[in-house]
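Shapes recur. Our protein:

. . .
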Amino acid sequence: MRIDLHTHSRASDGTDSPADLVRAAAGAGLDVLGITDHDTSDGWDEAARAAGDVGIELVRGMEISTRYKGRSVHLLAYLPDPTYPPLVAALDEVLDGRNARVPAILAKLNGLLGLDLEEAEVHRLAGDPAATGRPHIADLLISKGAVADRTEAFERYLKPGRPAYVERNAADLGEMIGIVAAAGGVTVIAHPWGRTDPAGMQQEDLAGLQELGLAGIEIDHQDHSPQARAALRAIAVDLDLVRTGSSDHHGLGKVDHDLGCNTTEPEQYERLVELAAAAAEASGRPAPGVLRP
């Protein structure tokens, strides 16, 4: 069984529609797909219809932007009730922050590059996602010939510490873990050592988050070196956290993140599903559950 629990569609910053993402996953030989767009469940219904057509098991989730000790941390939330009011309110605040910083980033880029980038161009290229953000601005820079791809855009201008980076709102990590649990879902820290200093997320940090309800950590990810994977796996085993692996696929938006390039072990997946079922029962919310073929 091949299981990929972290992918993105055009509902956020991927380049495939939710239906095309599901069909591509089936074509890549996956048995289980997690759709986890940034801060939104907008792609769930379309993905569910396509999953029924192609016969793939679908795990509906989202990747939520949070902060922990002043650092950005992405939280994978699986199978929560997306209508739970505190979750809706928290995601709306995060999405407002995403949208609000677009003009500030464009103003910095225009000053740096002598261009006349406009917010309307970003929206035109992005299509109609729940929020526009840095990947869509990167796409605009590509279209103008200023960079070759998203990777170059982030490395030169858009990542933290680069000249066009603008800070934004994000939810508190501990609070969000609790909100997702109350919505009947389970949480996994995405690529915990992939983009920030590993010192900011060590075993004692993960143990504290586990006490708040954290279910697992994403270990096998393209942004983790073999050494980081081994160290994270040891921590997860010691704490008895669920261990996941995934592609973080964005379609053409990311190179070297092909569907199924990293996968989750079936027994770890079953643990996650069992924890989600228990969370749904404890919450009393109409959580969606896994969509099986």
Remarks:
- The two ends are 14 Å apart (CA to CA).
- Residues 85-113 form the longest helix (29 residues).
- The chain has a mean pLDDT of 95.
